[in-house]
Amino acid sequence: PDLSSTTTVNVSVIDENDNVPLFASSYSETIAENTRASWELQVNATDEDSTSNGELTFSIAAGNTGGDFVINSTSGLVTIRNALDYERTAYYNMTLLVRDNGRLDSFSSTTSLYVTVVDLNDNTPLFQPAEINVTASEVTPLYRTIARI
User: Fold this and answer.
1) Model confidence pTM above 0.70
2) What pLDDT, in 10s, does the model give residues 62-109?
3) DSSP letter string, 16-82
4) Helix or strand or coil: residue 120?
């Protein structure tokens, strides 16, 4: 007679950090200068790993002139830290980085955030130099140019 026996075997599969986090897209925004608290941009990335291997950390890796923007490292929400000024910086070409929190190895990827700052009429015109002295003879004909400003 054949003899047999059965038992239950439990197998636990441990996630390997074998997927690279990926941004959903690149981003392009147009923002009026002097904008601050009212603007925000949610950037999105995914990682198919689980546990800490799939947890993501966001950062701005390059192009953040003057530190004018900040990104929430956990949520990926980009906001303005300093009021934008077209005369100081007319555009930003930032590199956004997402990194997974892999236990042994960590993977990352990047995307672009291009921001165009719209110039507003926020500066008073000034004469340069501030004072101009012109001397003209009393016999100077009408409509003759005596100075160029």
Assistant:
1) yes
2) 999 999 999 999 999 999 999 899 999 999 999 999 999 987 889 999
3) P-----EES--EEEEEETT--TT-EEE--EE----GGGG-EEEEEEE--GGG-EEE-TTT-EEEESS
4) coil
List all residues 6 or more positions away from 2 whose beta carbon is below 8 Å from its beta carbon: none
Taking only Cα atoms into account, the Rg of the chain, rounded to an integer number of angstroms, comes to 30
Lookup: tokens for 136:
């003209």
- In a 13 Å sphere around the CA of 4, the CA atoms on its Cβ side amount to 3
Which residues touch 145 (CB under 8 Å, ≥6 apart)?
none
Say how far apart CA 144 and CA 149 lie, in whole Å.
14
Q: Which tokens go with 34?
A: 């002097």
pLDDT at residue 95, as a whole number: 98
Q: From CA 149, how far away is CA 139, in angstroms rounded?
A: 22
Residue 25 in contact with residue 45, Cβ under 8 Å? no
At position 93, the amino acid (one-letter code) is N
